[in-house]
Specification:
alpha+beta, four-stranded antiparallel β-sheet, elongated, binds zinc ion
Length: 155
């Protein structure tokens, strides 16, 4: 019990239909419950989560095809774009042990190269070097912007 809702509601928070059953009910059915949670801030959270999880699953899919993905940054980049990867959404920037910066989506990520992206060849679970914060991540966004601009003009 969190104490936020002390008195029982009589009508659905979403559609005002009368409520029956459990005292702590706030919605008449699952449709209203889901609708309520997807309005306003909840909606933003849901939409951003959805994009991030989609990006993550695309990175996982391309990484499973390691044979070509490690040797073809341009091909990787185009594949991600065509598959609907949204390059505006990431979780963080991580410094790799070799000094390069990886654009991360949870434990998956990629390094921006001259003509495409190099997808990390394994998921990045907590490593000692990840505890150091990246002091100067700006460069990686410039690289990414250049890559996205270049691919747009090639169309
Ligand atoms: Zn309702």
């Amino acid at each position: 019990m969190n104490g936020i809702q002390t008195s029982a509601r009589e009508t659905c928070m979403m559609c005002d239909a009368p409520l029956s059953g459990r005292k702590d009910k706030r919605f008449c059915d699952d449709v209203c419950r889901v609708r309520h949670h997807r309005t306003g801030v909840q909606r933003v959270l849901h939409d951003v989560d959805r994009v991030l999880h989609r990006n993550r699953s695309l990175l996982r899919r391309i990484r499973a095809d390691a044979a070509w993905c490690s040797g073809d940054p341009a091909g990787c980049f185009m594949w991600l774009r065509r598959a609907g990867y949204d390059f505006n959404f990431h979780t963080h920037v991580a410094g790799l042990h070799d000094g390069r910066l990886a654009v991360m989506c949870y434990e998956e990520g990629f390094v921006v190269e001259e003509n495409g992206v190099q997808v990390l060849d394994r998921p990045m679970i907590q490593q000692p070097w990840m505890e150091q914060s990246v002091a100067e991540p700006a460069a990686v966004w410039c690289d990414l912007k250049r890559l996205l601009k270049g691919s747009a003009s090639r169309r």
